[in-house]
Amino acid sequence: MQTEPDPAGATESLKRIALLARGVAARASEENVTFLAASVAYYAFVSLLPAAVLALVVAVTVGGQQLASAVVVASADVLTDSGQELLVTALVDGPGQGSVTLISLPLTLWGALKVLRGLDIAFSQVYGTDGAVGLVNQLRDSLVVTVSVGGSLGAMVVLGTLVAVVDVGVVAVAASYLALPALLTAAFLPMYYVFPDTDVTLREVVPGAVFAGVGWTALRIAFQAYVDLTAGGDGEGAVYGVLGAVLLFVTFLYFGATLVLVGAVVNVVLAGDPEKTAEGSGDADGRDRQDKGTDTRAK
């Protein structure tokens, strides 16, 4: 015998989802989440760019002249002859490697610390705490987040590279995309647990991590589809292609940071009462309208 669907239960679930979405939107707007995400994205870009250069120098040091030549050939479409010569000097020559390393390493460390500090401040603002913790606790939290997020994202990059390079078939590609949300959720979970400067349980922070993991997966698929759609063309717009790639990367970081912070808002709203949060937002709007009306009558 088949069980009849429960329209009342489905309606109640939709109502709670709508209340949750309204509460999250109200809290995110109140805490200026998009503004905080912009600062995190900027420092992430500042740290990742020199980190990529530093990783390239290390790879060339290990791979030698052959890898350096491959890098130069790959850059032929976006660099002039003099630019390629400078790239060879920086990658192969000892003094060039030293100068690039001396510049990239401190920039990478500075940017990474700014990203972690920015996330810590953003989480404190979302949770309504003052964020006044000791230096030891800040370093501990930053280390935990760096190891977990860095390791998981590194595994994600390796997985994506293997899928792109090795002919693993359609099933394996689909499986990699299905595994990506779980991998990203595991990467973000420690961040949602250690950054709030208040007592939280693992169960309370799982929804935000899942939201960020699924959101980043959808964001990656959307941006990859955009890149595939706009790829190609002749060499006329090579420089504009580089600038476009930079803008696309910064935009990706901005939306990614926004998803991470909205995940924190989801945890805060779920830890309370979404219905009260939404009603509180409506009451606040009503008070604002009432105050404006009072001011108008007074004038």
TrEMBL record:
Location of this chain's protein in the cell: Cell membrane
Transmembrane segments: 40-62, 143-165, 171-193, 205-227, 239-270
Major subcellular location class: membrane
One GO term describing the cellular component: plasma membrane
Region (Disordered): 274-299
Record's keyword annotation contains rRNA processing: no
Keywords assigned by UniProt, alphabetized: Cell membrane, Membrane, Transmembrane, Transmembrane helix
Signal peptide: none
Domain of life: Archaea
Presence of the UniProt keyword Transmembrane helix in the record: yes
Any Pfam family: Virul_fac_BrkB
Topological type in the membrane: Multi-pass membrane protein
PANTHER family: INNER MEMBRANE PROTEIN YHJD, UPF0761 MEMBRANE PROTEIN YIHY
Protein name: YihY/virulence factor BrkB family protein
Taxonomic lineage of the native organism: Archaea, Methanobacteriati, Methanobacteriota, Stenosarchaea group, Halobacteria
